[in-house]
């Protein structure tokens, strides 16, 4: 039976890059979203609402994927609501697919909040893990919607007999519009505004993040990792960290990003300076830039997720991930982080999302 994939969240950073990679490798690929991505040739769109069981059943009645890739989530006001909504999304989807008995493997993308805690208690004292974080680290004694999503996958796997894999990237870097967690594009837009207005490129985060070691995950290497785990028997029924494979200090990378845009960087000066406040009044500036440079998107909020960038860069500890588990099982792909950002910036410029 030919491999066929259902990519849930195919309009996002992870989902769109994964769909492109699957199609490149010859998979029949369906992309599920409320507003499916129609920019990827050969991606078969599936329009459905994960919170609407009837919508899912109707949309999936003729879809029989061998592999399901869950890359979508929904942000809510509280962690309790995050748990309710995001677990329901996973449960509804796997329930809708269950009667077909076609699914062989389900891959779930979560992230380092598995180790750092949810947004309500993100990297707070008392929940801080030992770094580099390893998959063996036990669940925190705190509510976390990632745990609820995992439990839905485990329960459906026990019922339907498919294998699974859990993937925990650290800050995914890639192109998407309207994404809720999008540091790469957020930094590109902020840097562009700084260049246009003559403002310095101000570091928004903590001293620990500025001076400590860190890593990130290119959406392209995450796509490769998802396909590898789905098709490698020894990687089945396992949770994995996934990052580019290099480490860096933001004190170095911040300067490199500023050089690319030809702007003046301003590093950590003893005070956290949230980007959300820094760009709060810049919608009019962006409107004018969109007209001046003929940009495709004039809504600043569809390009930036400053709240999430502030969370990542404001953490009180350095955070990096251990990749030994994947390496031992044969996943040896590597991606330069500097190139991850530069490649993204070039793509954003080519697609007229930044000037």
Automatic annotation (TrEMBL):
Residues 65-355 form the PRISE-like Rossmann-fold domain. Gene3D superfamilies: NAD(P)-binding Rossmann-like Domain (3.40.50.720). This is SDR family oxidoreductase. InterPro entries: NAD(P)-bd_dom_sf, PRISE-like_Rossmann-fold.
């Amino acid at each position: 039976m030919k491999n066929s994939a259902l990519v849930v969240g195919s309009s996002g950073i992870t989902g769109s890059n994964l769909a492109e990679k699957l199609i490149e490798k010859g998979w029949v690929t369906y992309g599920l979203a409320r507003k499916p991505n129609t920019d990827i040739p050969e991606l078969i769109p599936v329009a459905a609402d994960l919170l609407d069981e009837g919508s899912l059943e109707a949309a999936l009645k003729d879809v029989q994927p061998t592999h399901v890739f869950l890359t979508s989530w929904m942000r809510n006001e509280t962690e309790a609501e995050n748990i309710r909504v995001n677990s329901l999304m996973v449960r509804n989807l796997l329930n809708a697919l269950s009667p077909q008995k076609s699914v062989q493997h389900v891959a779930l993308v979560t992230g380092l909040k598995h180790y750092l805690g949810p947004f309500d208690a993100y990297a707070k004292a008392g929940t801080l893990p030992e770094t580099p974080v390893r998959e063996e680290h036990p669940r925190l004694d705190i509510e976390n919607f990632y745990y609820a999503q995992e439990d839905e996958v485990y329960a459906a796997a026990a019922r339907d007999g498919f294998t699974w894999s859990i993937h925990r990237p650290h800050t995914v870097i890639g192109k998407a519009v309207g994404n809720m967690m999008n540091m790469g594009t957020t930094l590109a837009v902020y840097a562009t505004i700084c260049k246009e207005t003559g403002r310095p490129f101000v570091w928004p985060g903590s001293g620990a993040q500025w001076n400590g070691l860190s890593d990130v995950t290119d959406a392209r290497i995450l796509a490769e990792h998802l396909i590898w785990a789905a098709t490698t028997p020894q990687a089945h029924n396992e949770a994995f960290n996934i990052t580019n494979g290099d480490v860096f200090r933001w004190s170095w990378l911040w300067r490199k990003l500023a050089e690319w845009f030809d702007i003046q960087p301003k590093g950590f000066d003893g005070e956290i300076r949230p980007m959300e406040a820094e760009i709060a009044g810049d919608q009019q500036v962006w409107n004018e830039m969109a007209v001046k440079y003929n940009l495709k998107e004039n809504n600043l909020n569809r390009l930036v997720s400053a709240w999430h960038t502030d969370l990542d860069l404001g953490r009180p500890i350095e955070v990096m991930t251990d990749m030994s588990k994947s390496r031992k099982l044969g996943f040896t792909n590597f991606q330069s982080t500097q190139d991850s950002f530069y490649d993204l910036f070039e793509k954003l410029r080519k697609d007229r999302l930044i000037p």
